[in-house]
Amino acid sequence: KMAAxxxxxxxxxxxxxxxxxxxxxxxxxxxxxxxxxxEDRETEKGRLExxxxxxDRDLDQLIVQHYTELTTAIRTYQSITExxxxxxxxxxxxxxxxxxxxxxxxxKRDELRKLWIEGIEHKHVLNLLxxxxxxxxxxxxxxxxxxxxxxxxxxxxxxxxxxxLEGPLLQVEGLSDLRLxxxxxxxxxxxxxxxxxxxxxxxxxxxxxxxxxxxKGRISSHVKDASxxxxxxxxxxxxxxxxxxxxxxxxxxxxSMRETNLLEIKEDTELDPEENSTAFMGILIKGxxxxxxxxxxxxxxxxxxxxxxxxxxxxSTTQVADNGYQxxxxxxxxxxxx
Length: 338
Description:
Elements: H1 2-17, H2 21-34, H3 38-65, H4 67-136, H5 138-147, H6 151-165, H7 176-222, H8 240-245, H9 255-263, H10 277-290, H11 294-335
């Protein structure tokens, strides 16, 4: 018993010095290898068995003493193990779900991009359809504007429609007839504007002078003034030079001012466009500029200048002769006795 106790004590001391279990095994192997006698080995073997039995008894006693705590620890360990296992399974499931979500999001992204592109295409098609619908109404609106002599609106409408028909709507086969019609009207539009410009330059301006002269003649006949009729007042007559030199168009030397103010000319659709002859001629020039027909306009004015001036002289001569004849008759009637 003492030998067993010593062996057990030796083993305990060995274990206390080294917490590594392999240290005890190495000590036993060294003891067995150094002993040459079989009896010593058997003795060593018996010591080991007694020591292990002693350890088992001590372990059983400790288990009995700490049964409740051990049971609780074992159960706690088992629950912790189960929770860890469940957590691993859940994490694995979450990873799988994340991968599937990633794949679905890729698919959804492609679908959303496709729908977005389709939405842009449909919006573009709707804009083209609205533009086509508006362009189909251009001939009727153009006729109304031309009838009311709102030439600037008509020019803007015609130029815009032709640009659309020859640009974004060029591939629309159903608009070919309308395209030809509006293109033909655009090619001939400047002729109408040039005729209106000449009418205001040479005819309307001189008619106002003639009307002033008639009014003066009537006034003189009412007051029975036998004095000669005064000369026509042409200082306020609107001419192309005065049209450029008026304050609203800047000075003759500042071409940039004239161009800027010409661009600011707007047309009021509710007023008579010919009420202000100067503004109306500005509108005509702006319309011709939008049609890019200014060179043709200058050439037409140069070509027709001599003819128009002859017509002014002819009309003026006729008016002077008629006024003189009428004045002579009035004087002869006034001098006759009742």
